[in-house]
């Protein structure tokens, strides 16, 4: 099981999107759906899926947040045909950000926002195809532009099984981007590959809660560790959610909570749901007490 899982926020379309993505990508499946009741967003569906062997979580929780290209997913393809097939599926009802075609870095590449607004970069890499097929990619824009390298070293100092890969920098004459800032860089957190880039061009978006990264923890000490190091905005702390100093959203969650919410006893699920909705940082002891009906005793 992945230590870090991308979490995608939809208005009402999580189930529909799960079907769409698992049909668009090979070797993909829906692992399960959990429905939560009496949340601030009403009844909420949480859908766990795998795309090309990687885990994602989708939630339908209202129209609070919208996807934008500040976080996209780079799909590493072995053949041009695979690029074309994925592009056809993902672009239907969507919008091209960079048209499918030949570029200096790849002879078959395109960047698209799909029908839900989620951004995908589909790239032919041939024999250099990545072992991890889908790479979450962070784009640092506006006030955060120029912070990509700093952020990479910050994240790799916080997470274990981490490392910094190749960094491609902007050169002189590639304005508006400043010489030496990051055109593209690879890094790894808890064995999951990421990428990052700076962009000094004018953008009308930045990081938001529509895409967050769930960090699955076994023990309270682990939750405390990540919470202390990542949380930089007290106003954003809620139900295990936090924002770091770059504006990226994380969820520091307990694996045991997933199991509790899958229980067939609706009273237990209701008690656990009520308990964690009141929390900022997740408290495993309090979750167990709620699950066992001991809360407040």
Topology:
Elements lengths: L3 E7 L3 H11 L4 E11 L2 E10 L2 E7 L10 E7 L2 H12 L3 E9 L2 E8 L5 E6 L9 E8 L6 H11 L4 E7 L12 E8 L2 E8 L11 E7 L2 H11 L10 E3 L5 E6 H7 L4 H12 L6 H8 L6
Parallel strand pairs: 1-4, 5-8, 9-12, 13-15
Antiparallel strand pairs: 1-13, 2-3, 3-4, 5-9, 6-7, 7-8, 10-11, 11-12, 14-15
Helix pairs in contact: 6-7
What is the strand arrangement across the widest sheet? 6-7-8-5-9-12-11-10
User: Which strand-content bin applies to the residues?
Assistant: 35-45%
CA radius of gyration is: 20 Å
Question: Could you give a short account of the major beta sheet?
Answer: 8 strands, mixed
CATH architecture of the largest domain: 2-Layer Sandwich
Number of domains: 2
- Number of H- or I-type helical stretches: 7
The fold-level CATH name of the largest domain is Signal recognition particle alu RNA binding heterodimer, srp9/1
Classified by CATH, the class of the largest domain is Alpha Beta
Model regions low in confidence, pLDDT < 50 over at least 5 residues: none
Would you mind describing this structure in some detail?
The chain has helices at residues 14-24, 80-91, 148-158, 220-230, 255-261, 266-277, 284-291, and strands spanning 4-10, 29-39, 42-51, 54-60, 71-77, 95-103, 106-113, 119-124, 134-141, 163-169, 182-189, 192-199, 211-217, 241-243, 249-254. It is globular. It has seven helices and 15 strands. The longest helix has 12 residues, at 80-91. The protein is α+β, with helices and mostly antiparallel strands and 297 residues long. The protein has an eight-stranded mixed sheet, with helices on one face. A seven-stranded mixed sheet has the order 2-3-4-1-13-15-14, with helices on both faces. 38% of the residues are buried. The model has no long low-confidence stretch (mean pLDDT 95). It has two domains: 71-199, Signal recognition particle alu RNA binding heterodimer, srp9/1 (2-Layer Sandwich), CATH 3.30.720; 218-297, 2,3-Dihydroxybiphenyl 1,2-Dioxygenase, domain 1 (Roll).
